[in-house]
Amino acid sequence: MNTTTHSKRPLSWPLIVGLSSLALLWPLTGLWPILGDGAVRALTLLGLTGAVWIGTVGFARVARPVLTLTICGAAHGFLTLAFGGLLAGTGLISSGPAVFMALIPSLGIGAGVGALTGLAAYGIQAMLGKREQR
After folding, report:
1. Max CA pair span of the chain
2. What phi and psi, each to the nearest 5 degrees, are found at residue 29?
3. Could you give phi then psi for residue 119, rounded to 5 degrees?
């Protein structure tokens, strides 16, 4: 009998790093005016990132989807702030109080969005689990 439960499976750190690296889309799309500036670019990248996270974690049945995507969200917030600032010349290398003050909300918002996408991925996993039992 296997006593390992679904919640005790280890996190997939390579997956977390890979999904978090989608934060690089923000500074990269800023270099080329593909999506324009402002809300269109932000909403497009947010939607794309959320769809990839939910689809990947939900359909691949990744262990502990809420925790996995919460960590991805926090890392995404950090990477967005770090690389976005580095490309603009105001990154964490030249850190000061302003960068530290921006870091806390960036991590918190990223973790919150990650948790919400994790709940959606968990819902997909639950629906797929019910289909298999039929």
Report:
1. 58
2. -70, -20
3. -65, -40
CA 124 to chain centre: 17
Cβ-Cβ contacts under 8 Å for 95 (sequence gap 6 or more): none
pLDDT band at 110 (very low <50, low <70, confident <90, very high): very high
Name the one residue in this structure whose structure tokens are 């270099």.
Answer: 31
Contact 110, 78 (CB under 8 A): yes
- Predicted model pTM: 0.81
User: Which whole-number Å values give the CA distances from 99 to 10, 46, 64, in the listed order?
Assistant: 33, 22, 31
Q: How far apart are CA 12 and CA 20, in angstroms?
A: 12
- Write out pLDDT tens, residues 70-99: 999 999 999 888 776 666 554 444 556 776
CA-based nearest residue to 84, from 16, 18, 28:
28
Residue 20 to residue 76: CA distance in whole angstroms: 5
